[in-house]
């Protein structure tokens, strides 16, 4: 296991239940809510969340913006906008990596010691899960290697097959 391996954890369950400093939301560019994990986060946080989001003027694909967590156990929500999968030739991989990097930069800027990510773009936005988990683990481990904050990053998976993909991606990094 590499030096930062003990700073990555894989969890199966609902991200809205995690008592971390920041959870990341797989949002859309309006930041005004939607389905999937975005809908779950807005439901759990309460209406104050969309009220704060309305003041942010949306968010570009690959970028991220921070709000408070309101009724969530997490102190903050970092909203990022993943790419819609269009076959792989439209910069999707780089945009997805940028989502993880920008979210971690914002977490660092707000001294978030613990951060949890969902598998951005792998649901409604149809990014292939195998490639997406490789990008997620590669980008996060690269950031952890260069920064001491966050101390711990959780990949929160909705189901066990996704957790297995993350385990494999983490193992592959450890071997590299
Ligand atoms: N906790 C953890 N993971 C979850 C949860 C949850 N409560 N709910 C779903 N997932 P998706 P996207 C997983 O579709 O592909 C929204 O409408 C899910 O199994 O939520 O980035 C936004 O407003 C999948 O692996 O996000 C955008 O319009 C992962 O979260 C659009 O969907 C991401 O699936 C974004 O699509």
Automatic annotation (TrEMBL):
Which Pfam family, giving just one, matches this sequence? Answer: Macro
Q: Which residues form the Macro domain?
A: 1-174
Q: Name one GO molecular function term.
A: O-acetyl-ADP-ribose deacetylase activity
- Which Gene3D superfamilies did the record assign? Leucine Aminopeptidase, subunit E, domain 1
**What CDD domains does its record include?**
Macro_OAADPr_deacetylase (cd02908)
| NCBIfam families in UniProt | PRK00431.1-6
Q: What is this protein called?
A: Macro domain-containing protein
The species this protein was found in = Mesorhizobium plurifarium
């Amino acid at each position: 296991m590499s030096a930062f391996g003990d700073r990555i954890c894989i969890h199966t369950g609902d991200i809205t239940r995690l008592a971390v400093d920041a959870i990341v939301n797989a949002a859309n560019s309006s930041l005004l809510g939607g389905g999937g994990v975005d809908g779950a986060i807005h439901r759990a946080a309460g209406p104050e969340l969309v009220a704060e989001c309305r003041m942010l003027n949306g968010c570009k694909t690959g970028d991220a913006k921070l709000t408070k967590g309101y009724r969530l156990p997490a102190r903050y929500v970092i909203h990022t906008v993943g790419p819609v999968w269009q076959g792989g030739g439209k910069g999707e991989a780089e945009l997805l990596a940028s989502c993880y990097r920008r979210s971690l930069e914002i977490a660092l800027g707000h001294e978030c010691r613990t951060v949890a990510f969902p598998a951005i773009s792998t649901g409604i936005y149809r990014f292939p899960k195998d490639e997406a988990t490789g990008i997620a683990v590669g980008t996060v481990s690269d950031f952890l290697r260069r920064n001491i904050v966050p101390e711990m990053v959780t990949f929160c998976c909705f189901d066990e097959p996704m957790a297995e993909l993350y385990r494999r991606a983490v193992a592959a990094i450890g071997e590299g």
